[in-house]
Amino acid sequence: MRCGESLRLLQALRDIREGRGGVVELHGDPGSGKTRLLSLLMAAAEDQGVRVLDGRCEPTEQDAFGVFTRALGDLVTPRALSRLAPVHAELIRTHLCVDRDSPVPPSPPLPLSRAVHALLADAAGEGLLLVLDDFHRAHPEALELADHLVRRPFGAPVLVVIAQRSRQADPSLLGALAYGAEQGRVTRVALGPIDPEQAARLLNVRPDTGWLRSAYQESRGNILDLLVLGEAAPLRPSLTTDLVTGPLAPLAVELESLDPLERLVAECAAALGDRFTREELADVCELPFEQVCATVSGLVRLDILRPLPHSVTQYVFRQPVLRALTHERTDQCRRRQAHRRALAVLNRRAAPAAERAVHIELSTSAFTPEDLETLALAGKESALSAPEDAIRWLLLALRGLAPGDRSPGRLLGLIPPLARAFQAVGRLDDTALHLLAHDVGVRPDDARHAVIRVCVLVECLHGRFAEADAMLRTELARIGSAADPDMLARLTVFRGILSSLCSDGELATHASAALRLARTGGRATTLAGALSLHALAELTAGRTAGALAAYDAAVRQLDELPDSELRFHTEYFSLLGACALALGRPQEAEARYARGLAVSAGHHPDAMLPALYGGLAEAQLRQGRLESALRSAAEAADLAGHLGADRLRAYAMAQEALAVTYGEPPGSSRASARTEEALRALHHWHDSWHSLAVLTVAESLLLQGSQERCLELLLNRGAPDFGALSPPRRARAYELLTLASASSGARAAIWAERASRVMEDCPLPHSRAYALLARGHVLSQQNDWTAAIAAYRKAERLFDGAQLRLQSLRAAVRTAEAATCGRRPEEARELWSAARELADHWHMPLFSQSPSGGLPEGLQEDHRAPAPASPAGPDADLASLTRRELEVARLVGTGRRTREVAETLRVSPRTVEVHLARIYRKLEIASRAELAGLMAVRISTDARRPRY
After folding, report:
1. What predicted TM-score, i.e. pTM, was given to this entire model?
2. 3-class secondary structure for 243-290?
3. Measured by CB atoms within 10 angstroms of the end CB, which terminus of the chain is less buried, N or C?
């Protein structure tokens, strides 16, 4: 290090060995390596037999010639003075003798410099080296003496080395040295910043080491700063006792020399940050502005502070390490108060959140809501630029916001930046793991898994499956095959989950490996996850018996575990819920998703929440519980939006649209608007969430009568093979394609055949039901109504047995439509009545009447109330009502409330309201009062009629 500068100093040393003297100026910033070079030079001189004298100026130098007295002490002996001229001997005895007692009278510098010249020349012998270090602190009289020494050449082999900081040196000294350099009597050696390659050699690291670049930029090539940063790298620099008493000891002495006012201003400046103005400093110090200005000027002269380049108002510390040392040595209470006042200053000038977060963290442990919001914002903004800080701030924000925030959405918004920060760090050191372990209350090894889990989940939720897989591969490579089988099994389960989402064909491989590892040495929780993954893999491969066995085993394993052991494994509930849905067990699926949500409650926000709510909505939707499904889907969409999980949000929006479609009468503008909104959220993605969203929106379009759009969506966005879906869901997709094709006049048989093949590969009851439903659509297209009715009825029974109420009702309606088209009026009336009763019972106004708005032509008059012989009178108005509407009208006409009517007819209050809306429209009335009047006329007319 400093090879060029060392060679120049050694060349000057060789010159004195050849009988030539001279002067060398060694200058550079603090920490640039001056003291080390001087030590090497003095050692080399001693090795060559050159006599070495050295003296250092003290920060609080009182003796005018103290540095010379200390340096020349060994020469000032009676014997040496006796060899000098009496006048020279007297001058040295008076001014440079260590043992003098009386005050020293002023001395003309020129005669004293000649006496020193004579003393040095007499002692030179084979060579003499005089080193004067930190000469920028020298007394003015010592500076004047040095000036004369520099101006007068030595006639003996004497080398004088003056080491100083140019920024703090007196102008007279700088002028004398510059003049001597011009005359060729002074050799100037400047110590500038070292280059990056030298920094790497200094710290004994590779030049491409990740943290070296930032450390070099922060240190600006200063050797001392680099050593301190390297000591603490790759963590944030921490000033340990060894650093303060070792490399930083000279800086500590420098700070100790400050007077109380200078120290106060320096401490407040250190609290303010990397840069500050005098106005801000006055606010933090709580001192008059003029007093702060004068003190800052003094600190600039001492080179503690420096004006910021290219700025006339801002100041910085000379070195980042000097600021850190000043901050570290400040009294803790005073430091906290200074940070709180600094925060107020930064708030007034709307400083970036990261700047303010530092002061929040260092000023208090009882954060205000505003503090927590700032920490959260700072963590988001610094996730990539300062990931270690971002992790700390985000964990503080999560810990502080969680107890008072009842909505997890805002907290979930902090999870993606936290994951980005963990990934940006590139590794998990012990300090970070202990911080996280303390924050979430787990062991450090579980903290590592928690970090990997959240990073992988966020990547998956954002659709970056390749990045998630690379992260898992890296972690598996890091721990090696000889690692803890439980950790290997957990990571392999995650790889299996990833395969199930992106359909890369590796699900079976990962599931088998995870189960083997979990059985070898995994925990009970890991075994439950591995069994759930194995069940899904078996189901995907069409091995129904294996899937059922693995599913039942996973259920038993998971049910035996307490919630406390599952708080970081809620993805296992999602896996098990997905298996239950695929197996046609929506009630069990709902129970799994609900428990997963219960486990997540009361802890840090879980990135699995939107997936759990989405699964819960699907389970509720399949059971026909529309209101519950709508609430769950809305929650899933909101949480997914906070997480930035666009695919999952699109799926949740599609679930909302389908729930509204089933829950609204035909032609509902609300259902249409929700469906269009869900359509806009879809993109050309390729994963299971996207396929489910496409499937769900397509069903909404089909129910709303948009067969062509449904077909286009399924073919263009869903892909014909639907490879990302489990076999039962593929059967559902092919059934929708069959119906959309048949309704559009396109060839539908090809899709029905595919549904049949899925049924053969996965012979589950609801897979068979979808295949039968698709078969019924083809038979209806071929006008084979008898066979279609038989297929639809079988499908309805199978759906009903699986508790898939929506599909059961769809099959019932298709059966009634087939009977109508087949001209079977009595059977059709019975089927339509049964379908309506089911729709009313499950609160599905979509099917409370036939899709055309009433019964098909030919069945309507038989289903309506009998009409009188003459169309005249009030009965002519009531003739347009169906039998059910007439029953509602009669009950309402007697003054009964909606709930009372609903209880009498055993339907829901909402169904009664739907019927009332139709009655008002048909009778062209606007209120219950008008209806009551109409019905009173009808009752009085009935009373006057003769009875037969």
Report:
1. 0.69
2. HHHCCCHHHHHHHHCCCHHHHHHHHHHHHHCCCEEHHHHHHHHCCCHH
3. C
